[in-house]
Amino acid sequence: MILVSGEGQVYAWGLFGLIGFPLAAAAASFTVSSVRGTAWTQFGFSLMNAVLATIMLFNIVGREAVSVFDGWIRLDAFAAYTVWLTIVVGGLASLHSIGYIGRELRDGAVTVGRYRQYYAGLHLFVLSMMLIAMMNHIGILWVAVEATTLISALLIAFRNGGAALEAAWKYLIIGGLGIALALFGIILLFAAIPAESVQDQLMWTDFIRRASELNPVLVKVAFLFILVGFGTKAGLAPMHFWLPDAHSQAPSPVSALLSAALLHTALYAVIRIKLIVDLVEPGFSGGLLIVFGLISLAVTVPFFLVQHDLKRLLAYSSVEHMGILALGFGVGGAASFGALLHMFNHAMGKSMLFFSAGSIMQRYHSKRMDRIHGLLRSMPFTGSAFAVGAFAIAGSPPFSLFLSEYTIAAAAFRNGQWMAGVLFLTCVVLIFSGMAYYIAQMLFGSNGHRIESRAEEDGTKAAALAVPLFLLLLFGLYVPPFFRELLNWTIQTLRGVPS
Amino acid sequence: MEWITFLLLAGAYAVLWVKRIRDAVLLIGFQALLLAVLTWQYAWEHHSLHLYAVAVLIVIIKAVVIPWVLLYTLRKIDVKREVERFFSKSSTMLAGLLLILLAHYLASRLEIYSGSTAAQGIDPLAVALSFLLLGVYIMIGQKKAIMQGIGLIVIENGLYLTALVLLGGLQLIVDLGVFFDILVSVIVIGILSYRINSTFESLNTEHLEKLKG
């Protein structure tokens, strides 16, 4: 067994670090004796992992993929980018949790034992999501996706009430059914390799290399099952039913992880397999992704316009953005660049919104939007961050989501997909107006003197908002050249050429 | 091997028929034993060490540990009213038959190599697809939370059977991963069923319809 292969040996060891830090953080959640110490130790490990992931990411540009364990674990640019995004969102969630779950502990809503379980679960969840992107073997990739369901179902049920249990149960059953379909698709994909050579390793790279030998009918049927299966986890309509419940019932940092990391890694799994299908049957998978993307956008609009619950509003917005991503990857070409950039933008914007929603709920003791008024007065910093996040996620300039959505729409029109482009823009405009209406309602007005404008939120919560806020503003005005280079390098991977 | 595939099919169909959840769990264990025998047979034919190992693992995990976890949960919950269906028993059984017919039709349409037994009567791929469809039907047609979990396990058994007849099993490490996931998901199903039962004083999923829109 070749433990480490690929050009950069050092980076292969870095790969072990990426896996090791979340494990260490999960272990520390149980072993560090003081409550404050637990919170800061687990954040320390996330911070170190974020730094390591960033170093790895910027060194992978222009290199061949790094792989370990005989190529079972493999990091090319697309995988590295997805892993990096997951780790960054995970790190922000771990930082925000210090204030959020710490307050739940002080309020007596959770016990010390549950508090420790929460942190352990949080980091194992991050680890399972990272593993999705790291796995070269499609069977193990499936195992990782299933693992995310199991860990996050318990996190969603963290608050014991009936609604949380309902959300977790629906998620477990619908998600379980979804990935069962995906496994069926994966078995069909394995069966598409000519029978005499099934002994092969069945890595993703093997499939790419031997695309011409695959049985095209089976590959197409397999992709349908995989798209519906992993698409369920990615929150693509019409398989999104678990999503608003799970996102609204989970503790806010977990909601942020579900929306800003889990959905992306599930979509990553679809795109990985799409790259095999593209070599066998060009255009087939792209068309399907466009259809599912447009359905997701269209389904969001009515739910968006009649929503009362703040976190459900944000959840439907995630369905919308997964639709935009599916559309972008489906159109391909320049739209892929837009989609990759959009992944980053959505991850930053949505985690910021879920974090601030968590703080708002803790202050107002409600997630009904008609009970939340005068945010700007009662919570100046969180309220402003919330406003910026909301306008950014709705796609208004000058934020970077405008840029990525514009890139996707322009590419659709240039490719002659007029219908897709027009539908896309129509839905985005409708959703924008819905969002603007609710936000204005919450930001201004009097809060009825029920909520005193106390001192600002505690530092960790504010810091977890400030980082994505800064990045959203920066990337809206100008995408740094190294990031551009990184995305272009990632697009090379998306052409299906194993580097 | 004809009789094993037949018994597997009958075992999956019987889950629709049982009165007590406990019997459904025992049927799941019985299915696992049959799958282990079938795997042993394949291992014998193909001289595959890894399939022998998988057969042993199936007995341990799917025929012993998983039923034990479910029976333990049932004992702790102390279910009063047993299996409850959304449809009458006769229409449930009829729908089950139709699903099995549909599975045979789909298997014949898929036109893929599915072992030598395909020509001689019961097509194992058709049985595998029947498992998938019956599993989904159990998840939809049953009111008790834990029965939905059992539907999920029936689906997983069907997936395992599909992989066995189409590919001669997945690779050992993949099988290990899948088994581990199934084991953990059964434990999570147990934990959540227990908590649902203690919150609502019932395992009935009709209580789980508050979240809408």
UniProtKB/TrEMBL annotation, chain A:
Mode of membrane association: Multi-pass membrane protein
Ranges of residues in domain NADH:quinone oxidoreductase/Mrp antiporter transmembrane: 140-427
Domain of life, per lineage: Bacteria
InterPro entries for the chain: ComplexI-like_HydComp (IPR052175), NADH_UbQ_OxRdtase (IPR003918), ND/Mrp_TM (IPR001750)
Endoplasmic reticulum is among the record's keywords: no
Parts of the chain that traverse the membrane: 12-33, 39-61, 73-95, 115-133, 171-193, 214-232, 252-271, 283-304, 324-344, 375-396, 416-440, 461-479
Subcellular location: Cell membrane; Membrane
Record flagged with keyword Repressor: no
Record's keyword terms, sorted: Cell membrane, Membrane, Oxidoreductase, Transmembrane, Transmembrane helix
Signal peptide start-end: none
A Pfam family per the record: Proton_antipo_M
Name the UniProt record assigns to this protein: Hydrogenase 4 subunit F
UniProtKB/TrEMBL annotation, chain B:
Its membrane topology: Multi-pass membrane protein
Main localization of the protein described in the UniProt heading: membrane
Highest taxon of source: Bacteria
Keyword Isomerase: no
InterPro entries: HyfE-like
Subcellular localization(s) per the UniProt record: Cell membrane
Keywords for this protein: Cell membrane, Membrane, Transmembrane, Transmembrane helix
Signal peptide range: none
Transmembrane segments: 24-43, 49-74, 86-106, 118-138, 150-170, 176-194
Keyword Hydrolase carried by entry: no
Protein name per the record: Hydrogenase
Species name: Ferviditalea candida
